[in-house]
Specification:
Strand content: 25-35%
């Protein structure tokens, strides 16, 4: 009977336990996150939690405290329904201290699945321990020391003197040092949690482990080489200057990988770029490689294998063994990948060229960097709104960028959209936000599910720097498609005389521990702090170490490849201050050999505290006292965004503070604005070639939204916006415009206010609305006129201070005492007219007096009876005193030159054989006009058509034609076109 009762009790208990403890096939109501620190101090520590699946969503911060603490450390209970996680099947988590630039637990972005978690009384638990990258999700995990709460080694590394320095969680008694698993030293520790082991004879090509004995347990960890990477011995032994990556020919492909501390390397060959889909995106399983080939070390830390045959469009990965652990990784030099970047691809670039690609060259529109007028654009923004009216399948894709002939019509009015809009606006360069392979967009989901919502990201989390983003192609599964389609986009821009600039983000990698760079050479490509953690100067989890020779080589190789293969015309460097000056100059030097008009510029700041030596930083950092003048140490062909100018122009990027266009000025702001207008050499540049002048960019509020947020009335916004960009386009430097600024681009939030950080907001927030162009077409036309004016007058594009100091002069206005207006003249040289530019801010009644005896024509004003602008014949003429009666008005006055029309002296001229002939000698060119004419070859007799192009002092163009008869022969040869 007792046995029966005992049996029944056992069954009942088992049933109860089965009801209360299960793996989470049922929905929990609470997630409990436990975080254990050995010092027991949780002040300032928090977790950033987000839904990763079924679709990625934005994150939230939850703060740990010193009150909710148990044997597993601090804990936070997340109400899943209240916090919007009731449908979540997979979470992402970052445990950090303070803000984004603070300490982060190793592991970077870590993930755990609901299906792996143990459900106990409606709750699931996730356990984290300081310095342990593993996550515990059940009592079984805890029983198996996942994560490990026992005494441990927090960090161990060689110092510069080649001694081992180790930080311990608890006092230890003894140690053993292993070299390639062979014990080479042992000893006892003194008291203390930091210990140093000396008298070692180390070999940088070998792996060293430290085993520590505590009172009741042992711990073992590989000794980091992070402090030896910068030694001359390492640099001399392992700096390689040859080609890396997959080097393709039809007969043979060479695979090379720099992995100087690895024990073994091999290459895996696959037929498809995704383990579950073929190159058409059809379901197809290929979990294992078709073949694997052992690589051998050749020189300076490089491993190589040569495979005979045509490997074009084959996919590959590397197996890299470090510290007795093998990781399968993609190639850092990957030139393309399959969907989601899981496997690298061997590329035959000749096969990816669209028709006539060889004839597509960078437009011949740039003689000096100040000729650039840059328009910043995200690929998706141009084409995703319904008013674009292009090919449906090309929305948000590279092909959308290439499509002409799109318009939007309403109420009897039609406006151009997309590519044709950019051409109509008149800018000569498009800066594309990141187009390399970046994280956070599931390319498979975007391809398979047209209704998926997670399709937008700015793209500042790089995974493969040389690979194009697959979600912008019509087929991410075939790595050739994205290349072919992007080349079509570049070709389309070039056909419209628009250059293409690429936003590059070499300052960090999208993952930290998970980065292929880190798995191949642990700790080399990133700056690590004294605790072995990733320094977070980017604010995104890590920062790269460009001062190291092989990181510098990668950046130079990458920009050269992108410039040559895709015929790019420039690069914008995100958080450029995290790079060193030598690297930036090396990139400038390398690109000069391709085309010296390729432009380089970047942000002269970091995203947080960095470890870079302040003296070598390419901008301001915490390590140099935020010194902008570091920019002067770089080649003058490397520019930087002028944030002092931007803030003086409109106030800080977010919030209610104003600047010149809001009338919120003081002496210091006015000085910053004046200095920026005159080339910024009194601020931080060597010349205007380094001065990127701008009022807005993709970061922060759009200009329209900033103006509204800082108190500008709705009926005044367009005037303030026009004036802001008028100042930008009449400053000495390189003007930079945010796409859509020309029709008051806005990013409103559903519940009111404006989105100031739309990096992962939906298309509905970020897209360019072409109906808005129609609504504010007067503003668009004004911007067209301002761009025309900048292109017309060389004085607005002066590129050196010698010329600026000779020709540029600030002049007094009647409002100087209020700091609300400013004016300047630019003297004409040769046939060029003199310019007077008056920026009357938020004040009425600004006047300027010039006693130069010249008459000027006003070509821009404020909306009203006079009209906004007239660049073909001008609005009114003025001399002596120049009054601007209205506020928020930029008036540009052009010295009146001859209004006569150009004429020919003769319809036909005769030229002697082999005699020098000036084609313009037969043209009456009015004063102030510039003329160009076809040069003719007088060594060949016959009739030749000469084309003459004339631009008057207002920028209006006209053409004349006449015939030149080269005498002395019996044959006729007719030629035309401009020289």
């Amino acid at each position: 009977m007792k046995k029966i009762i005992l049996f029944l009790l056992t069954v009942m208990l088992t049933s109860v336990l089965a009801l209360s403890i299960t793996y989470a096939s049922e929905r929990p109501n609470t997630l409990v996150v436990h975080y254990f620190r050995y010092d027991g101090n949780y002040t300032g520590y928090n977790m950033w939690l987000w839904q990763n699946e079924p679709t990625g969503l934005g994150g939230k911060q939850f703060n740990f405290t010193n009150t909710n603490v148990d044997e597993h450390g601090a804990y936070y209970e997340v109400d899943l329904e209240a916090e919007g996680y009731n449908e979540t099947t997979k979470w992402g988590i970052i445990i950090k201290q303070g803000a984004w630039d603070g300490y982060r637990e190793p592991g970077g972005d870590r993930f755990f699945k609901l299906s792996d978690a143990e459900l106990i009384n409606g709750k699931i638990h996730a356990y984290f321990v300081q310095a342990d990258t593993r996550i515990g999700l059940s009592n079984a995990d805890l029983a198996n020391n996942i994560p490990d709460y026992r005494p441990n080694i927090l960090f161990v590394a060689f110092n510069a003197q080649r001694n081992i320095v180790v930080d311990l969680t608890h006092t230890a008694t003894s140690y053993k040092v292993y070299e390639n698993d062979v014990q080479v030293k042992s000893g006892n520790f003194t008291t203390g949690l930091r210990q140093t082991i000396t008298d070692l004879n180390i070999d940088l090509t070998k792996t060293y482990d430290l085993e520590v004995t505590f009172a009741d347990s042992t711990a073992r960890k590989t000794v980091s080489l992070q402090n030896l990477y910068d030694t001359p011995e390492f640099e001399n032994a392992f700096t390689y200057d040859g080609e890396l990556g997959a080097i393709y020919t039809k007969a043979e492909t060479t695979f090379r990988l720099w992995a100087p501390v690895s024990q073994a390397v091999s290459v895996n060959i696959y037929n498809q770029g995704h383990p579950q889909y073929n190159r058409l995106g059809q379901a197809s399983e290929e979990a294992n490689p078709a073949s694997t080939h052992v690589m051998t070390p050749i020189e300076n830390g490089v491993w190589e294998v040569k495979l005979s045959g045509d490997f074009a469009s084959k996919y590959y990965t590397f197996d890299v063994t470090n510290n007795n652990v093998t990781n399968e990784v993609t190639d850092p030099y990957s030139y393309s990948t399959g969907a989601n970047g899981l496997r690298s691809m061997v590329v035959d670039f000749d096969s990816t060229d669209p028709l006539y690609w060889d004839f597509s060259t960078r437009p011949n529109t740039i003689q000096t960097f100040t000729d650039y007028i840059i328009w910043e654009l995200h690929v998706r923004d141009l084409t995703t709104h319904s008013s674009w009216n292009g090919t449906e399948s090309s929305r948000g894709k590279f092909l959308g960028l290439a499509e002409s002939g799109t318009t939007y019509s309403a109420n009897g009015t039609t406006v151009t959209t997309g590519l044709d809009h950019i051409e109509e606006l008149g800018v000569n360069a498009v800066h594309l936000l990141p187009i390399f392979d970046f994280g956070y967009i599931d390319e498979v989901e975007v391809f398979k599910n047209p209704n998926t919502e997670n399709v937008f990201n700015w793209g500042y989390m790089p995974y493969h720097f040389n690979t194009l983003e697959g979600s912008y192609s019509t087929n991410p599964f075939d790595g050739n498609v994205r290349i072919y389609e992007f080349k079509q986009a570049v070709q389309a821009f070039h056909q419209k005389d628009i250059r293409v600039i690429m936003d590059v983000v070499y300052n960090h990698t999208g993952e930290s521990e998970g980065s292929n760079f880190h798995k191949i050479v642990p700790g080399y490509f990133h700056r690590l702090n004294a605790n072995g953690g990733f320094q977070n100067g980017s604010g995104t989890g890590n920062e790269t170490a460009s001062e190291r020779s092989m990181v510098r080589k990668f950046m130079v190789d990458s920009t050269v490849f992108l410039a040559e293969e895709y015929k790019l015309s420039g690069f914008r460097f995100d958080l450029m201050s995290l790079h060193d000056i030598e690297t930036m100059n090396a990139i400038r030097e390398a690109l000069n050999k391709i085309d010296p008009t390729i432009i380089l510029y970047g942000e002269p700041w970091a995203g947080g505290d960095t470890l870079i030596d302040g003296d070598i930083a390419a901008g301001m950092t915490n390590t140099n006292g935020w010194d902008r003048t570091q920019v002067r140490k770089m080649d003058s062909g490397v520019g930087a965004f002028n944030d002092l100018y931007r803030n003086a122009l409109k106030g800080t990027p977010d919030g209610a503070e104003g600047g010149f266009v809001q009338g919120a000025m003081d002496f210091n702001k006015m000085q910053d604005l004046r200095k920026g207008i005159k080339g910024a050499t009194d601020q931080f540049t060597n010349s205007p070639l380094q001065n990127i002048v701008y009022g807005e960019a993709h970061d922060n509020l759009t200009l329209h939204d900033k103006l509204r947020s800082s108190g500008v009335p709705i009926n005044e916004v367009k005037h303030a916006q026009v004036q802001s960009n008028a100042i930008v386009l009449t400053s000495m430097g390189i003007p930079f415009l945010h796409a859509g600024t020309e029709f008051l681009r806005s990013k409103p939030l559903q519940n009111g206010g404006y989105d100031h950080n739309s990096y992962e907001s939906p298309d509905s927030v970020n897209q360019l609305r072409w109906d808005r162009k129609l609504e504010y077409n007067d503003v668009f036309e004004y911007h067209k006129a301002l761009i025309h004016i900048r292109k017309t007058y060389q004085g607005l594009r002066m590129d050196n201070m010698t010329e600026i100091n000779a020709r540029f002069n600030f002049v007094q206005t009647s409002q100087d005492h209020t700091d609300k207006s400013l004016a300047y003249t630019i003297d004409g040289v040769g046939n060029q007219p003199k310019l007077l530019i008056i920026h009357a801010g938020r004040v009425t009644g600004t006047s300027v007096t010039l006693n130069d005896g010249k008459t000027y024509m006003m070509v821009t004003s404020r909306a009203g009876s006079q009209g906004l602008y007239d660049v073909s014949k001008g609005l009114v003429t003025r001399s002596g005193k120049f009054d601007v009666l209205t506020q928020s008005t930029t008036s540009i006055f052009v010295e009146v030159k001859s209004t006569d029309l150009p004429t020919l002296k003769s319809e036909v001229v005769t030229v002697a054989l082999n005699k020098a002939f000036d084609s313009l000698s037969n043209v009456n060119v009015p004063t102030g006009a510039t003329a160009y004419a076809t040069a003719i070859d007088t060594s060949i007799p016959g009739f030749k058509v000469v084309t003459v192009s004339i631009t008057d002092f207002l920028g209006n163009q006209s053409n004349l034609y006449y015939v030149a008869n080269v005498s002395g022969g019996m044959f006729t040869n007719v030629l035309g076109g401009l020289s």
